[in-house]
Amino acid sequence: MKKFAKYSFPILFFLFIGLSYLFDFASGEQIGDNFWLFFKEMILFLPLMFILIGLFDVWIQREKIEKHIGKDSGWKGTLLVILMAMLQAGPLYGAFPFAYLLWKKGCSIRNIFIYLGAYSTIKVPMLTFEIGFLGLKFSLLRTLITLPLFILIGFAMEKYLKGKKFEVKQPKN
Amino acid sequence: MLELTIIVCILLVASFLADKKKTIKGVTLGLIMFVKLLPALISMLALVSVLFFTIPNETLISLIGKDSGINGWLIAALLGSVSLIPGFIAFPLCNILIGKGVAYSTVAVFITTLMMVGAITLPVEAKFFGWRVSIIRNTLSFIAAIVVGVLMMFFL
Is B83 within 8 Å of B115 (Cβ atoms)? Predict the structure, then answer.
């Protein structure tokens, strides 16, 4: 029953979309097209990302991560984690699994949140796109202003979570 | 996208040549994680596609363009927080906003919340970080976005 409740929204959604196409209900078809647009983006991108995460998991040793971006890694660790995030691509929810893996391998709390901040706001593939549409000055300024802010958020989260039993969990269905 | 595909393929081949067993284990681990997350992601995308329909881009543009200053930032921040728009739609949209005379600072607030704050992705985020931490992270990011707007106004 609990399982049914959890899946009832997507089931109803697909039922609605299916019926819309069957009976030529324009609004439903439009929503279905939207869903397909977003789904396509996700299904092409995320499996690749997860394969990368899996490979990362088996090849990179915990000691390495711990040493470079762990608790005692300092500013060098912060820089490293920002560079790593900048080279990636994809929507914010693509970063959560990777954050989990970093956590598992011994990355510090501060660097996990700095990673999320950098990933969401200053990824290079996204910046090139932004510069194209909004100009170099805008992008550069936004990057320079956002950078210290998400580093600050990293420090704040670390301070807040210190002593609390915080962990990044692997989602269970 | 193409770059990512190429990189993953190269790494996969290299990994496979170096250690077959390890590679299979890694790929399986990754894909299991993906499958476990899939139901939550599909629910999220279903919700997004409904929202995307109820609040079309034209509405978004008129709402953001309506007010300037603090009110404008707050509206932009709220809309950015509840929307989940992929970059290839968001940046052209912002370009239109600028063309309609919306301030750069307001656009910056909208983009920053769009990227950092995810009300719709919150259930997915909470699966990894727990609800409390996810809400705190999103709230701090929301505040940061407003700060971005204030500073952008000074510089642009």
Answer: no
